[in-house]
Amino acid sequence: MRTILLTLLLSVVAISAFAQTNTYPECTSQVEAINKMPLRIAYLVPVDSLGKYMYLEFAAPSMCDHSDVVADIDYRQVTSFATLYYDEKGRVRKTIKWYSDGGDLNNVVYYDEQGNILYAVYASTSEKYGKLYSCNSQIHINHSFSELDFREGFHIWINMTTENLANVYKSDLKMPENCKSVTFLPIKIGDRAFLCTNRAYISPNGRLINKDDNMAGAYFGGRVVIDDIKGDWCKVRYTLITESDETVGYVRVEDLEIIK
């Protein structure tokens, strides 16, 4: 993956020439703390001009009058723009968005107590994805896409603050009552997760899997189940049977986002 370090000016991102700083470890420690705390789960849903919840196969904020945050949802009847996770003080600390047809991962974003972005993993396709780390007004990005794609800025649609999230989706983001409480860590065998990489390995610290291994292969955003855990590595398989072996292989824990 290519690496770029950026300076953040609200939602406008400009390339800089700084050397890598401590952005990565500072962000990952805060992300780990968020995943260890009890979080309340809620859903951001579109509402039409008559006040009715909307079901849209391909949803966008411009297609609704505003959005509400609800504690429960029936995906057969209502579209969810995102799953929101609140801390005990009612602050949004994490969001997960997937494609509106209920498919693969689109992005995951973590926020600090002030509502500023800490970390995000995001994609436009299974081959074009990136990981963004933000700390002290600097952003460090690892990305798999070309320089042209980067300069066209497809990553900028990530909501860089919870204030921006509220404005884009026309919602006050107030945490509803009776939200279910979840925690993401520690991970366990049997947990479901999104793949946040397109690389899988034959064993922990082993070689990359190739097509001759007759395994399913990794793609960004795929839904998997954890079959085994060895240190900082997980052996995973897809939740749906594929044409070949459904086993993906081993991926690093940091390349998984647990689904709750």
From TrEMBL:
Signal peptide interval: 1-19
Alphabetic keyword roster: Signal
Keyword Signal: yes
Keyword Signal: yes
Source superkingdom: Bacteria
Name the UniProt record assigns to this protein: SH3 domain-containing protein
